[in-house]
Amino acid sequence: SYTNDQNLLDNFHKKYRRGRSAALNLVITETGADKAVAKVLPPLAGKLTGNAVRVPTPDVSLAILSLTIKKETTKDVVNGILREAALNGHLVEQIQYSISNELVSTDLVGNPCASIVDSPATIVSKDQKNVVLYVWYDNEYGYTRQVMRLAKHLADVIRLKYY
């Protein structure tokens, strides 16, 4: 999605591409996500790279994760692990697992989860050691919900569950 750092009309910007109309263009740009993950998970330092493409949507973004793994695997195994984490893991309210073949960005506006795994889009290479995951997130409301979750955690406040 485009951000408030981009112009809605072609205009001057210190980063030329971001000066192009956000509502009309796909814009290749950098991301600090790889560095942020490495700070939180130090064993991954130097093992991640990241890039971003800003697209002409005001909300919802898609992360494409390309993973090289040591053991051979299958799409069913990968999706099974993600499904288990979403349904029964300690991040049950943070990960949503989707089986929809028709999922698009507007379907996820207002989604409170940190990530929505698009399971039909999962790819495992023929050698079974390379995996591509497509993970959606609402970069406005979903982000705000994550900030609230963190604030509650820091304040040691636990909300009541009614389900």
Structure description:
- The protein folds into 2 domains: 1-57, no CATH class; 59-163, 2-Layer Sandwich (Dihydrodipicolinate Reductase, domain 2), CATH 3.30.360.10.
- The protein is 22% helix and 20% strand.
- The chain is built from 3 helices and 7 strands.
- It has helices at residues 33-40, 75-88, 141-154; strands spanning 27-29, 52-54, 61-68, 95-98, 115-118, 123-124, 130-137.
- A hairpin with a 5-residue loop joins strand 6 and strand 7.
- The longest helix is centred in the middle third of the chain and has 14 residues, at 75-88.
- The chain starts with 26 loop residues before the first strand and ends in a 9-residue tail after the last helix.
- The mean pLDDT is 89.
The major beta sheet can be summarized as:
5 strands, mixed
Average pLDDT: 89
Uncertain regions: pLDDT < 50 for 5+ in a row? Answer: none
Q: How much of the sequence is in beta strands? A: 15-25%
Task: State the fourth-level CATH superfamily of the largest domain.
Answer: Dihydrodipicolinate Reductase, domain 2
Secondary structure tally, helices: 3
Order of helices and strands: EHEEHEEEEH
- CATH T-level fold name of the largest domain: Dihydrodipicolinate Reductase, domain 2
Quaternary structure annotation: single chain
CATH architecture of the largest domain: 2-Layer Sandwich
What is the approximate shape?
Answer: globular
- The helix fraction, in percent, is 10-25%
Global structural class: alpha+beta
* Count of discrete domains: 2
What's the CATH first level of the largest domain?
Alpha Beta
Backbone CA Rg:
18 Å
Number of strands: 7
Separation, N- and C-terminal Cα atoms: 33 Å
